[in-house]
Design goal:
Radius of gyration: 25 Å
Largest sheet: 7 strands, mixed, barrel
Low-confidence stretches: none
Mean pLDDT: 94
Oligomer: single chain
Strand content: 15-25%
Strand order of the largest sheet: 10-13-14-15-18-17-16
Helix content: 25-40%
């Protein structure tokens, strides 16, 4: 009850970043207030009537309980390169110097879908006003991305953006921009080692600017704003001072933000274009020469047989997020063209065989080449293939292309120590087999060039493990169990070739 509705939403959003299927808070007064402020009083009334169902059951038990005292919680910063590497703001400067992370902050970026509520923006603006009153501007470049047209219009109406602009900030379009890699960054050359600090939800390698040497850190909007005034990770706003225009030291007061606008939200410009009332005569024509759009064709149905001697495409070592599987940034222009966007498949994943990215050995030619090109080579030769992965494979965003691409390129199964469950379900929807080692140590048995057979599919059933046999290059074999989480409906997806295929069968 001490947190705003949008604050709770941010916490729930970030749960998915480390593999949670979902995160939830019980319904409370703060949620009611937010629903009413966003013209959803009817929903609030219904929710209030079912308040007992939207809270935990009396006497319920949990597998694990972690207590967090919000009064004792200190500001934190996460990164670089992952949203779950956490350091207190009071220690990050020293840690950066020890680890060799650049301490100069080149750019601070706040907003995006995650941390761009009215409360977030007003907190950052309160810091900007303090700096402005002292004649101080941002030392780092600074951008503001409103999370919606409503937020953009409301902060402009209430003058929330003005102090941020006045000390050097730039307001970007309320759209997926640098957060997802759509950023025409000009301040540093590609490949240069540098640090940025954002309030975005992800900071995986190359995520924001396609530069693998950009050290991306994640913090709250107010921390990003304060650090951007200092221009360095060696600044703790709770204890350290800035210098005003005359060189006198001053400290920032604790930021304050209004949870909801006192004058209500401004919906902004209505850009919705409704579809025609009768679309029966509408056809979709796509230029066959287009490299941005391509009509999808249904994936092939399962042939009813066990998978025999599939080729190992790559054994991935370590972290493999959906950004590693299907990179964002400049690739997003191909989101409507599955064949073209598939050229980013696993290009930043680490190959366990040689410790390199986008370099795997072809079982056909014996040469090392790019992952997508090798997958296409196998597909053209009629060879199905398998990816083997490590822990929490597919963490991060629920990126559908990360599941579409392996299916399109001829993949049959993804076998890992453990999955991020959203990605696991996405793979099922595309007719792939997401499987886990019953014994995670069996990951170590997989060798470069292995042929992989998956048996038990002819009697595929919920809760019944499948069997895997590895045929190594020296002729020896290893056999072990593979677990799955398919239910009856999902097995139907697999047999039909995809969830869409199954839906089409019902027409």
């Amino acid at each position: 009850n001490s947190m705003s509705c949008t604050g709770m939403a941010t916490i729930c959003n970030m749960g998915a970043e480390i593999g949670a299927t979902t995160s939830i808070f019980p319904y409370n007064e703060r949620m009611k207030n937010y629903l009413e402020a966003t013209d959803r009083a009817g929903i609030a009334k219904v929710a209030g009537g079912y308040h007992s169902l939207l809270n935990s059951d009396q006497g319920c038990e949990y597998d694990e309980v972690i207590e967090i005292n919000l009064s004792e919680l200190k500001p934190l910063i996460n990164g670089p390169f992952t949203p779950d590497l956490c350091t207190p703001i009071s220690e990050v400067g020293a840690r950066a110097e020890k680890e060799g992370w650049p301490t100069e902050i080149k750019v601070g970026l706040i907003g995006s879908c995650t941390n761009s509520s009215y409360e977030d923006m007003t907190r950052s603006a309160s810091i900007a006003r303090q700096a402005q009153s002292k004649g101080v501007e941002f030392k780092s470049l600074f951008t503001i991305t409103p999370g919606s047209e409503q937020i953009r219009a409301t902060i402009e109406r209430d003058g929330i953006d003005k102090p941020l602009r006045d000390i050097g900030g730039m307001v970007l379009a309320n759209a997926c921009g640098p957060c997802i890699g759509q950023w025409d960054r000009q301040d540093v050359p590609k490949g240069e080692k540098n640090t940025i600090v954002t309030s975005y939800n992800r900071n995986f390698t190359g995520r924001n600017d396609a530069n693998p040497n950009t050290h991306g850190f994640v913090a709250s909007p107010e921390i990003v704003t304060a650090l951007s005034l200092a221009g360095t990770l060696n600044f703790n706003p709770e204890t350290d001072s800035l210098l005003d225009k005359d060189g006198n030291p001053f400290m920032l007061d604790t930021p304050y933000g209004d949870e909801l606008p006192s004058n209500g939200f401004d919906p902004g410009e209505d850009t919705y274009q409704p579809p025609p009332a009768d679309s029966s005569a509408v056809t979709v024509d796509v230029d066959p020469e287009s490299n941005r759009l391509e009509l999808l064709t249904p994936f092939a149905k399962w042939d009813g047989q066990d998978y025999n001697e599939l080729q190992l495409l790559i054994k991935v070592k370590g972290k493999c997020t959906t950004d590693h599987i299907s990179a964002a940034g400049p690739w997003l222009k191909f989101r409507g063209h599955l064949n073209n966007i598939s050229n980013n498949f696993l290009i930043t994943a680490t190959n366990a065989e040689n410790g390199e990215m986008n370099s795997i050995k072809s079982a056909i030619t014996g040469d090392f080449g790019a992952v997508p090109a090798t997958a296409r080579e196998y597909k053209a030769a009629g060879i199905g293939w398998v990816v083997v992965g490590d822990e929490n494979y597919g963490e991060g965003s629920s990126r559908e292309h990360a599941a579409l691409e392996p299916r399109h390129l001829g993949g049959k199964a993804i076998i890992v120590r453990s999955f991020a469950r959203i990605h696991e379900t996405n793979l099922k929807k595309q007719g792939m087999l997401p499987l886990t080692f019953a014994d995670p140590a069996d990951y170590n048995k997989v060798q470069p060039g292995d042929k992989i057979s998956i048996n038990g599919l002819t009697s595929f059933a919920p809760g019944v493990p499948l069997s895997c046999t590895l045929k190594h290059g020296d002729g020896t074999t290893d056999t072990f169990a593979l677990n799955h989480t398919f239910n009856e409906n999902q097995i139907g997806w697999f047999k039909a070739g995809s969830a869409l295929n199954k839906m089409a069968e019902g027409k």
